[in-house]
Amino acid sequence: MKRVAIVYGGWSSEREVSLSSGRQMAAAARESGQYDVVEIDATRELANQILDAKPDVILNGLHGPWGEDGCVQGVFEILGIPYSHSGVAASAVAMDKRKSKAVYAQNGIEIAADVKVTREFAAKEHPLPPPYVIKPIAEGSSFGVVMVRKGANAPADILMSDSWVYGDNLMAEEYIPGREITVGVMGDRALCVTEITTLREFYDFDAKYESGGSRHVVPADLPGRVTQAVMDAALKAHQALGCRGVTRSDFRYDDEKDRLVILETNTQPGMTPTSLVPEQAAHLGISFVELVSWMIEDASCPR
């Protein structure tokens, strides 16, 4: 029986989400009856934790910095153990919002205008005409995202508060009005399109992970040509970045201007009870157990 190490937790800002993802995947892998499952809550001694576990395969359930940006993927490759999801280079580029946007643009996928800014500069003056969005360049789950509304007299003062923990290198990006939509990709297949609605100011961390924080419409009620365009764009983004396994790309669609803009590609999409990719897979008749088993069997490692 194949021994599978589910690596989750870690120490990034997305630890709690990762714990939920990892435990859900571990339960599904056990339910399949195909695997000997060991769970690893990642520490900075992760290499030793993995060596002690002696797995045949690693199912990566980490999210955010260190787990999703190529760092831990490098550890897996040094150890020579097949692992799920994207490799070192694809993970690193996808995690960097500006680098990934350069790849999208080179491959004909429309992006929002942006400028790189320091936290100090963005707190003193508007880097773009409002409305715009301030984002950390390499965070996930909407951590550190700040919306500056149209007509705002001053930049966001939260950027210089003592509670800010998302670094000094930020991106100011034009705000794209319209609908929040997302597409999961599984190998070489775009799954379907989900529209996300929320009563919150925007699709932030609480909207993503709190029960009732958002509503997912699967499949999204969009014109057929738009549905096809966003599915094609998600698969193109996955391939252009060099991703493998499962990813999820997020978009905004402006109905009035008929404008489809990609925001980012998640190389370690959530696997929690409210997560989008498992929902899309289920819509297509792929159970969560089957999805997790597919990710395990899809694992690989360059030699």
TrEMBL record:
<keyword id="KW-0067">ATP-binding</keyword>
<keyword id="KW-0133">Cell shape</keyword>
<dbReference type="InterPro" id="IPR011761">
    <property type="entry name" value="ATP-grasp"/>
</dbReference>
<feature type="domain" description="ATP-grasp">
    <location>
        <begin position="101"/>
        <end position="297"/>
    </location>
</feature>
<keyword id="KW-0961">Cell wall biogenesis/degradation</keyword>
<keyword id="KW-0547">Nucleotide-binding</keyword>
<keyword id="KW-0963">Cytoplasm</keyword>
<keyword id="KW-0573">Peptidoglycan synthesis</keyword>
<dbReference type="Pfam" id="PF07478">
    <property type="entry name" value="Dala_Dala_lig_C"/>
</dbReference>
<comment type="similarity">
    <text>Belongs to the D-alanine--D-alanine ligase family.</text>
</comment>
<dbReference type="InterPro" id="IPR013815">
    <property type="entry name" value="ATP_grasp_subdomain_1"/>
</dbReference>
<keyword id="KW-0436">Ligase</keyword>
<dbReference type="InterPro" id="IPR005905">
    <property type="entry name" value="D_ala_D_ala"/>
</dbReference>
<dbReference type="InterPro" id="IPR011095">
    <property type="entry name" value="Dala_Dala_lig_C"/>
</dbReference>
<dbReference type="Pfam" id="PF01820">
    <property type="entry name" value="Dala_Dala_lig_N"/>
</dbReference>
<comment type="pathway">
    <text>Cell wall biogenesis; peptidoglycan biosynthesis.</text>
</comment>
<dbReference type="InterPro" id="IPR016185">
    <property type="entry name" value="PreATP-grasp_dom_sf"/>
</dbReference>
<dbReference type="GO" id="GO:0008716">
    <property type="term" value="F:D-alanine-D-alanine ligase activity"/>
</dbReference>
<dbReference type="InterPro" id="IPR000291">
    <property type="entry name" value="D-Ala_lig_Van_CS"/>
</dbReference>
<dbReference type="InterPro" id="IPR011127">
    <property type="entry name" value="Dala_Dala_lig_N"/>
</dbReference>
<comment type="function">
    <text>Cell wall formation.</text>
</comment>
<protein>
    <recommendedName>
        <fullName>D-alanine--D-alanine ligase</fullName>
        <ecNumber>6.3.2.4</ecNumber>
    </recommendedName>
</protein>
